[in-house]
Design goal:
single chain, 220 residues, mainly beta, 5-stranded mixed beta sheet, 3-stranded antiparallel beta sheet, globular
Length: 220
């Protein structure tokens, strides 16, 4: 980007969920729930985030891989374009294509159970398995793969893109103001009719439900 003009923005959507960063700064998340045949996309203002020289647009995408109350009959996929208005009129459009770089996030465990038929899967995440600075302009992505372009007529259910009809969610960071209680969790064993003994590491909701919360004795 050489000279920035008012109106720089992005249009973005994906088959499940996305989180958008520009130059390491969190921009927003989405898209709104929609049928794949009429896919909703979001518009984000980027003019306060872009800078002269090199810029990095980074997206964390999530595909449910199952039917639930948020997505149905959808295949994995991502679409985005960056629009940079030019002083002479028109706009420079940078679209997601085969030049974009991708890497499968390793931190999320895929061998997990579904929470239920309405929601997605339990989240088990190990932050040590993914680079911490992958959203920054100075990050080296030479080891990443090129994105695969979904060809027209490849069986995708997407046929029409439309701008989000409901406002973006308002996000506000709330910091704690006081400590309400302290305690510790004892390693579960021999309770809930013996069910806890048979739970796997991936059965997080069941393990949380079976834990015993007690006053702090071994921790502080």
């Amino acid at each position: 980007v050489r000279e920035l003009a008012a109106g720089a923005r992005s249009r973005i959507t994906c088959s499940g969920r996305y989180i958008l960063y520009v130059n390491g700064v969190y921009v927003g998340r989405g898209p709104a729930r929609s049928a794949p045949q009429w896919k909703s996309y979001d518009i984000h203002d980027l003019r306060h985030l872009l800078r002269t020289g090199r810029n990095t647009v980074a997206v964390l995408g999530y595909h449910y891989g199952c039917q639930n109350n948020y997505t149905r009959d959808d295949r994995a996929g991502f679409w985005a374009q960056i629009e940079l208005p030019e002083e002479a009129g028109g706009a420079c459009v940078i679209g997601a294509d085969g030049q974009w770089k991708v890497r499968q996030a390793k931190g999320w465990d895929r061998n997990v159970d579904l929470i239920n038929s309405c929601l997605g899967a339990t989240e088990v995440y190990d932050a040590r398995l993914d680079p911490a600075d992958w959203t920054m302009p100075e990050f080296d992505d030479q080891g990443w793969e090129r994105a695969t372009v979904i060809a027209p007529g490849s069986g995708t259910p997407w046929s029409y893109l439309e701008a989000r009809q409901t406002p973006l969610m308002l996000e506000r960071e709330c910091l704690p103001v006081a400590v309400a209680a302290t305690g510790e969790i004892r390693e579960y064993s021999h309770h809930i009719n013996g069910l806890a003994d048979n739970l796997s590491v991936q059965q997080v909701p069941e393990r949380l439900a079976s834990e015993i919360y007690v006053p702090a004795e071994f921790t502080r």
